[in-house]
Design brief:
single chain; elongated
Length: 154
């Protein structure tokens, strides 16, 4: 491990600890040249599937950043913590990581909807309105009824 301060190639591990869930290892290191101390985090890098877009022909690499961005947008100004969003993203990634080499974008969207439904109903409706391309108020009413809300029409 290269020292971030002096760029010396040799460092010594002073302390190692597992993260809370055991998926990350935290290591305190000391540079053998400048004696600077720093922390590194090790996490297993697993390959994610390619995402097959709606047209069926286009394939793009999976992007955790895009997933977080879309969920954060739906949850904007809602009482949901960043750690809850991170946990939801982790659950989604765990489901798609061990599947096929390719996954349809619709499957990822369905997983996002399921997570948002359990996190916040308003965020679920925001995401669903774009995901299902709601074009009229009745579309929202039907979706709300599916969530268990009773809608009375006037």
């Amino acid at each position: 491990m290269q020292c971030p301060y002096c760029k010396h190639p040799d460092t010594q591990v002073i302390d190692s600890r597992s993260g809370e869930d055991g998926s990350v290892i935290r290591r305190r290191r000391r540079c053998l040249s400048c004696q600077g101390r720093f922390t590194t985090y090790e996490k297993v890098a697993l390959s994610m599937p390619l995402v097959v877009k709606k047209d069926g022909r286009t394939r793009v690499p999976y992007s955790q950043e895009k997933l977080i961005k879309s969920m954060t947008l739906a949850l904007r100004k809602r009482p949901v913590t960043a750690s809850a969003i991170e946990a939801a993203v982790d659950r989604i990634e765990q489901k798609i990581r061990f599947g096929e080499k390719e996954i349809e974008s619709k499957k990822i969207g369905d997983l996002v909807l399921a997570e948002l439904e359990s996190l916040d109903k308003v965020a679920y409706m925001r995401f669903a309105s774009v995901y299902f391309n709601y074009s009229k108020p009745d579309d929202f009413a039907i979706a709300l009824e599916k969530l268990g809300f009773s809608i009375t029409k006037k």
